[in-house]
Amino acid sequence: MAQPSRDVLKTGQSFEAMATVRHTEFRLTATDVAKAVVMIAIAFIFVVPFAWMVLTSFKATQDVFRYAAPLTWKTFIPPHPTLENYQHIFTTWDFQRNAMNSFIAATGQVVGASVVCTLAAFVFARLHFRGRDILFGLVI
Q1: How many Å apart are CA 105 and CA 114, to the nearest integer?
Q2: For the chain, what is the HEC assignment?
Q3: Fewer Cβ atoms within 10 A, N terminus or C terminus of the chain?
Q4: pTM for this structure?
């Protein structure tokens, strides 16, 4: 079997052809900057409450209410981190049973939705009936 020559790439282009390809210059426009700022702001809006929730879970109960207002660094970062809340969940509450119930309910919903959506997809793809497009638009 013949081996391809070294000056031919796997795409079939020679090195000389690759060298003649023009590189486009990347230009950052005001629209690109505005899009990036908006995306960062939206990410910030979604991430901050979640981070606040996680960090608050490491605070003692008294600290949660003591540093609620005015907003300071102690509102967001626990001044005296503790695992007391996590210990309380596993010893006092029946957390494992609640987590298992949530898992069972979520699994049932996912399986049920998958079955119903599969059957609906078959109907929309294969069967033609009056109002199909309107109904499909409502489903989407």
Answers
A1: 14
A2: CCCCCCCECCCCCEHHHHHCCCCCCCCCCHHHHHHHHHHHHHHHHHHHHHHHHHHHCCCCHHHHHHCCCCCCHHHHCCCCCCCHHHHHHHHCCCHHHHHHHHHHHHHHHHHHHHHHHHHHHHHHHHCCCCCHHHHHHHHC
A3: N
A4: 0.55
